[in-house]
Design goal:
- By secondary structure, the chain is mainly β.
- The protein has a single domain, classed as Jelly Rolls.
- The chain contains 1 helix and 14 strands.
- The strands form 4 sheets. Strands 9-4-6-12-8-10 form a 6-stranded mixed β-sheet, covered by helices on one side. Strands 3-14-7-11 form a 4-stranded antiparallel β-sheet.
- The N terminus is likely disordered.
């Protein structure tokens, strides 16, 4: 069950033309034009998945090399991903979830994406509807762009700060499409080439 259904997340930008005067679009968020995304003195850690799962209400052969979100035929699909909480010894300045479009996948229009907190613990690699742990706030919004096939970068700072403050409630992220239209966006899992989802975290000590 979705907790905090009235929670809001900032609307992501697709280009600087959608930002107010004096701001530009950085990592799908409007930021001060010419400013750095993170302070130069911050410490960066780039994390690869500790656990990964695919959730669907359809029969599946298992977690494969890629997952398609936002297609008309897969509107209830989601990716669950958990990372080693190596942010525990520093203050979280910024955090970005990086998703890699799969090479050679069909290219369509932009797909709205949401990143939620998994409400309870889960085990992969496959999660039918009856075993999904549910979604909980805070959450973030992003835009998946299959053309050109560039990495999707979603600002998940508030989620990682929540995990840092409540480590007992860190059950990882849930990525799903907020709208559905074919062909959706096909993302690499890293199981057979391509980059898996990664978490880019910036800390101050």
């Amino acid at each position: 069950m979705l907790a905090g259904a009235c929670t809001r997340a900032a609307t992501p930008c697709a280009a600087s033309t959608s930002c107010p005067l004096g701001q530009e679009c950085l990592a799908a968020r409007c930021a001060r034009e010419g400013g750095a995304p993170v302070p130069a003195e911050s410490r960066r850690i780039l994390l690869r998945p500790q656990a990964l799962a695919f959730a669907s209400d359809e029969p599946t052969d298992g977690l494969g090399a890629s997952v398609t979100l936002g297609s008309d035929s897969g509107s209830h699909r989601a990716i669950y991903v958990r990372f080693d909480p190596r942010w525990k010894n520093g203050k979280v300045i910024s955090a970005f979830l990086l998703l890699e479009p799969s090479a050679g996948a069909p290219r369509g229009g932009d797909v709205g994406l949401e990143v939620w907190r998994a409400e309870k613990t889960w085990q992969g690699p496959n999660l039918p509807c009856s075993r999904q742990p549910g979604l909980a706030p805070p959450f973030a919004r992003g835009i998946g762009r299959a053309a050109p096939a560039l990495p999707v970068r979603i600002d998940v700072t508030e989620l990682v700060r929540f995990f840092a403050d409540h480590p007992e409630r860190d059950h990882g992220f849930v990525v799903r499409a907020s709208d559905a239209h074919d062909p959706g966006i096909t993302l690499a899992t890293g199981l057979d080439g391509g980059e898996p989802p990664r978490l880019d975290v910036y800390l101050s000590n």
